[in-house]
Specification:
Organism: Xylaria flabelliformis
Pfam family, one: 4HBT
Shape: globular
Radius of gyration: 17 Å
Protein name: Thioesterase domain-containing protein
Strand content: 35-45%
Oligomer: single chain
CATH topology: Thiol Ester Dehydrase, Chain A
CATH superfamily: Hotdog Thioesterase
Distance between the termini: 41 Å
Length: 198
């Protein structure tokens, strides 16, 4: 089988060239042990989007349209446990979201962690919506383009309108930690004016 390779400081990432990114991601998710374990929880929901966006808002949505596509971030496979405030999201990262050649721009990691961590805690807040008050990110290893990643988000604590969440991005194939984050999300006093996204 032919492969495409990106070399980075003696680390080589390969992607099968005979499978499209969607098929590759689907196959990976179908056999991933983390998915099998997460599905054992009683209240798990599965979808192909982190957030539920109204049709009229979709054309202007950053992650669902602007960053979407097989050369950027393909549609994720998302698993949520609203009772626990936990989320898993599997993404394919393409070439067109690179900062340095072959390396995914760190801002993409921040955007997707923010979205996944927020969605994880929303069901634990009374109004089921929140905004990011603080997001701290530690970049541990480069995220290579043409790779599949797993984003994890877990609500650690909820006090009134505040939720603290931990998150990470790891290589979906070998589990290598790429990015980790902590965040504080707050249900704003004007929460009733925000469209619901779950």
């Amino acid at each position: 089988m032919a492969t495409n390779s990106v070399k980075l400081n003696d680390v080589v990432q390969t992607a099968p060239s005979d499978l499209d990114p969607e098929t590759t991601l689907q196959s990976l998710v179908a056999s991933h042990p983390v998915v099998a374990d997460f599905r054992q929880r009683p209240a798990v929901k599965e979808s192909r989007s982190v957030l539920r966006i109204n049709d009229e808002d979709l054309p202007n949505h950053l992650t669902c349209t602007t960053l979407a596509g097989s050369d950027m971030t393909g549609r994720p496979y998302v698993f949520t446990d609203d009772q626990a405030g936990s989320l898993l999201a599997f993404y394919h990262f393409g070439n067109k979201i690179a900062g340095h050649t072959g390396i995914v721009h760190g801002g993409i990691a921040g955007v997707l962690l923010d979205e996944c961590m927020g969605r994880a805690c929303f069901p634990r807040l009374a109004g089921q919506i929140g905004v990011t008050a603080k997001l701290e990110i530690e970049y541990k290893n480069p995220i290579l383009a043409q790779s599949e990643v797993l984003i994890r988000a877990d609500t650690v604590e909820v006090q009134g309108r505040k939720a603290w969440v931990s998150g990470s991005i790891e290589d979906a194939r070998d589990g290598k930690l790429l990015v980790k984050a902590t965040g504080l999300f707050i249900e704003p006093r004007w929460a009733a004016d925000i469209p619901k996204v779950m």
